[in-house]
Specification:
about 300 residues, about 0% strand, mainly alpha, 15 helices
């Protein structure tokens, strides 16, 4: 049996020199191009896109928590000391010297702390969210992601503080013999309402701080004034009844009264809760839409 040798010249041209006869474009892998374009006008938030970036949201929230307590002596104890010291000041000056404790049933300190719990959550979330875009300017100008993630992640710090302070609240209730009733099941409802209110106000302020840097200095002052315009140190009963529904246009009025009713077993002011809930959803709607409309200019003006 004889073997025949086949040379390159005997083979077909397509098989002999494939690299030379085939065009280079056919050998190159297919390239997928993604074009990112801003939406136009006032449009709803793309929640599906936010869900796809949920891991980034969790990472940024955890980063803010670590930065808040990094290189601190007391660590998470600051989440307890701040409302406790505020409660002590209110108890002395509003409760004892101002006579506000006479308008409250039970211990005035528990009454105040039950309102400071949602208020500290709201104040911390709004303050952090309002300044979040300015402090993340390098991230915004270098990489694309849904910008709403930045103010949303800032709320995580307030939630951690709330969880720590909630344990202190239950301890105070046990110390002052406050009944643990079924009203406590409403706490998640008012917690969600407080978070939504903070998100609406925080995203609106975050967009305003980018466009008008004056709001960066107004933010702290606004939160302080808002606290005294909310029933933190005083009960809702001190507000004349004919003005209560107007007063409830402040969304934190309904949330604070709801928390207080859940902790202390007081009756729910349904009229104020309805008005505050409507205002809360309105603040979320306006805040998100204004943020969405301004989002396209963030990288240019930050």
């Amino acid at each position: 049996m004889s073997a025949t040798a086949t040379t390159v010249s005997d083979m077909p041209e397509a098989l002999a020199t494939p690299a030379q006869t085939r065009p280079a474009a056919a050998l190159a892998p297919a390239t997928v191009r993604t074009v990112i374009e801003p939406r136009s006008g006032w449009q709803l938030v793309d929640f599906a896109q936010l869900w796809r970036y949920r891991e980034l949201l969790g990472f940024l929230a955890w980063r803010d928590v670590k930065i808040r307590y990094k290189q601190t002596v007391l660590g998470a104890m600051w989440a307890v000391l701040q409302p406790l010291l505020t409660m002590l000041v209110f108890t002395i000056f509003f409760g004892r010297f101002g006579g506000m404790s006479h308008n409250v049933e039970g211990a005035y300190s528990v009454f105040v702390f039950s309102a400071l719990l949602p208020w500290q959550l709201f104040a911390t979330a709004v303050t952090q969210a309002g300044q979040s875009l300015v402090t993340s300017n390098n991230l915004i100008s270098k990489v694309y992601f849904p910008r709403l993630i930045i103010p949303f992640s800032s709320v995580g710090t307030g939630i951690v503080d709330f969880a720590v302070s909630l344990v202190v609240m239950f301890a105070m209730m046990a110390w002052y013999h406050v009944t643990f009733g079924p009203w406590l099941l409403l706490i998640p409802v008012f917690f969600l309402g407080t978070v939504l209110t903070a998100l609406g106000v925080g995203t609106l302020l975050a967009a305003l701080v980018i466009a008008y840097r004056d709001f960066r200095y107004v933010l702290t002052f606004l939160v302080q004034i808002w606290m005294f315009a909310s029933p933190v140190a005083y009960p809702l009963s001190v507000v004349p009844e004919k003005y209560r529904l107007w007063y409830a246009l402040n969304p934190m009025v309904g949330m604070i009264c709801g928390f207080r009713s859940a902790f202390l077993g007081e009756g729910l002011p349904f009229g104020c809760l309805i008005v505050s809930s409507v205002t809360m959803f309105l603040s979320v709607f306006v805040g998100l839409l204004y943020f969405r409309r301004s989002e396209r200019r963030f990288a240019d003006i930050i």
